[in-house]
Structure formats: structure tokens, C-alpha cells
Amino acid sequence: MSTEEANKELFRRYFDEGTNKGNLDVVEELFAPDYKHHDPANPDVIVGNEGVRRHIETLRGAFPDIAFHIEDMVAQGDKVVIRWTANVTHTGDYFGIPPTGKSATITGMNTWQVRDGKAVEGWVNRDDVGLMQQLGLA
């Protein structure tokens, strides 16, 4: 398997096993201990395996039925870019927003950098305005 294909497989597992199924055991396998994640909607950088686990727990706490679907994935060298869609139902607190019970479809893109077979840094761009509109909050 090429390096690019191995890197793609990391993030297939992240979405399938980690976020979709809530299997937090995969975090140490997929992310470096010093991993850093940048989200323009969240000024706090997610750091390390514990940060990734908390991120997944936060998502699944707000949207227990979250289902990510990879629409496109491109890997070149140490970078992987994924365009995704996620279907959710808002039944838990989401960054202080009480549950609305509404369903939504979120779209976004992630870029990850991989070193020695693990993600070391990541960036996300997500349609938060579209999510808020679908939840009746904007």
C-alpha cells in the first residue's frame, strides 16, 4: 500500500470507527500524542489524543446519531484533504446550545498532515451557519 493510500485509510477509520461509531480506542492508533487541531469556530486548539477524544465525545453528545460520509478524498505526500457530509439530530448540548431535536446536514472539509503513520496536525472548515439555520437558531 502506498503512503498516500495508508494516509487515506487513517481518516476512513477516524470517520467510520471514531466519530460514527464512537470507538475512542482508535484515537491513539490514528493521532500523534502531540496532535494539534485548528477550528476557526473554536479558538481553543484541540491538542493531543485526549483533545481528540473530548472532541468526539462532544460531537456524539450533541448528535448521538452523527453519520459522516466521505464525499471526496485526496492525498499527496504527507497531506490528506477530505470533503464530507454529516447527517445529525441535535439531541444534546452543543457548545452551550440546548437540544432542538431537529435534524440537519452539515458539510465541511478537513486537511490533515501525517507523520510516521499518524495525524500530527489538522484544520477544518465547516458550514456552521448552515447548521444553525437548519436547527432554527439563525
Features:
6 strands, 6-stranded mixed beta sheet, alpha+beta, 32% helix, 138 residues, globular, 4 helices, Nuclear Transport Factor 2, Chain: A
Report on this model:
The structure is a single chain. The protein is an alpha+beta fold. It has a single domain, classed as Nuclear Transport Factor 2, Chain: A (Roll), CATH 3.10.450. The chain has four helices and six strands, in the order H-H-E-E-H-E-E-E-E-H. A six-stranded mixed beta sheet has the order 2-1-6-5-4-3. A hairpin with a 2-residue loop joins strand 1 and strand 2. The protein starts with a helix and ends with a helix. The model has no long low-confidence stretch (mean pLDDT 95).
Instruction: Return the string of H and E elements.
Output: HHEEHEEEEH
Biggest sheet, in brief? Answer: 6 strands, mixed
The CATH class designation is Alpha Beta
N- and C-termini, Cα separation: 46 Å
In total, the number of domains comes to 1
Mean pLDDT: 95
Structural class: alpha+beta
Helix content: 25-40%
CATH architecture: Roll
Uncertain residue segments = none
Contiguous helical run count: 4
